[in-house]
Amino acid sequence: MAEKFILVWTIEGATVSKHHSTQAEALQQAETLLREHGCDLEIAMHLDRISLPSSGWFTRRRMRDWCRAGFPMVRI
Fold first, then answer.
1. Quick one: which of 20, 2, 18 has its CA closest to 10?
2. Where are the domains positioned within the chain?
3. pLDDT, tens only, 16-28
4. Alpha helices (H) in the chain, listed in sequence order
5. Is 34 in a helix, a strand, or coil?
C-alpha cells in the first residue's frame, strides 16, 4: 500500500483535508495555501492517517517556520 500524505487546514472555521500520493504534491499544495492565506494559516501534514495535532508529521508550527523561511527544500 502506498503512503498517503494528508494535508489538513482550517480557513474561516472550515476544516478541509486532502490526500496526496507523494510528499512533493502535498508540500506543493501546502506552499500554495500558505502563499494565499499567510504563514499563520492553520495547516498540518500527516502521514497515512490524521493524528493528534501535536504528533502531526509536519505540524502547524513547522509549516509556519517553513513559510517564514521562504519555503526551502524539505529533507526528511
1. 18
2. 5-68
3. 999 999 989 999 9
4. 23-37, 60-68
5. helix
Residue keyed to cell 509556519 = 64
Q: Dihedral of the CA atoms 19, 5, 9, 49 (nearest 10)?
A: 90
All 3 cell numbers of residue 65?
517556520
Work out whether the CA dihedral 36, 8, 13, 55 comes out positive or negative. negative
Q: Answer whether 56's CB lies under 8 Å from 46's CB.
A: yes
Q: What is the pLDDT of residue 47?
A: 85
pLDDT of residue 15: 95
For 32, which DSSP code? H
Which residues neighbour 74 within 8 Å (Cβ) at sequence distance 6 or greater?
A: 23, 27, 66
Strands 5-11 and 42-47: antiparallel
**Alpha carbon of 8 to those of 39, 42, 56, 61: distances in Å?**
15, 8, 10, 13
